Amino acid sequence: xxxxxxxxxxxxxxxxxxxxxxxxxxxxxxxxxxxxxxxxxxxxxxxxxxxxxxxxxxxxxxxxxxxxxxxxxxxxxxxxxxxxxxxxxxxxxxxxxxxxxxxxxxxxxxxxxxxxxxxxxxxxxxxxxxxxxxxxxxxxxxxxxxxxxxxxxxxxxxxxxxxxxxxxxxxxxxxxxxxxxxxxxxxxxxxxxxxxxxxxxxxxxxxxxxxxxxxxxxxxxxxxxxxxxxxxxxxxxxxxxxxxxxxxxxxxxxxxxxxxxxxxxxxxxxxxxxxxxxxxxxxxxxxxxxxxxxxx
Length: 296
Prior knowledge:
The chain is mostly helical. It has helices spanning 11-31, 51-64, 74-87, 91-102, 107-119, 127-137, 143-155, 158-175, 177-193, 197-200, 250-253, 256-259, 261-277, and strands at residues 202-204, 207-210, 246-249. Helix 1 (11-31) packs across helix 13 and helix 3 packs antiparallel against helix 4. The longest helix is centred in the first third of the chain and has 21 residues, at 11-31.
């Protein structure tokens, strides 16, 4: 193993497995269990993807699992806060945190906002606004969000459709990728160009080191990545082995897929495609009254 790198063995497979499980949980939160939006057959099997991109996806997930790295990505940081709040029943706070994550072009968070407006979770029901948010979430081609957007549209009245288009203009003016990705790019560039010792450990001699105590809320979370020595549960130390720091070479740590906005967005999209959209789902339709069979 390279002397500049001592991330614990087996993290690649563990990271991939945890990514799938965590993102599946997130998908369940996003779509709910009662809508018929996903009555369409889900994509199954491994998507057709460049093998080089799949190898880079492994590296991307590995670096995002280093202590503190995910928290420096505001899209992931606020999404994790939102999911934690949602899990704890603080639905209004969850909506606010999802909206913050959405302002950094996080598509799952935008879909979560849509779902909460549609169902009136943490807010009053607003179906036109829900449609506009799901339209934005689907704008980078996430198949499940496209299906849900079309379902929403099919349920709106003509008046609601007209309102959705009006509301959408305001939402796109603030949250469109052109604006939101630029907002995230400025954050990532600032962090990348400044010393990171106070954020993820310290750097020197061609290495980056992170400790368990250097992060909060990154125990698997929205990146789907397990932490060395941890089970993936959120907590004060993020699930890390406090006695076992993780290290990576600077070349690996500063790879474009983690810090350069276009590459970062590409591999977040690929992660969702591989870990979520390639997996089969069980769809649950709307509840129906079943007639009692005649007595024999």
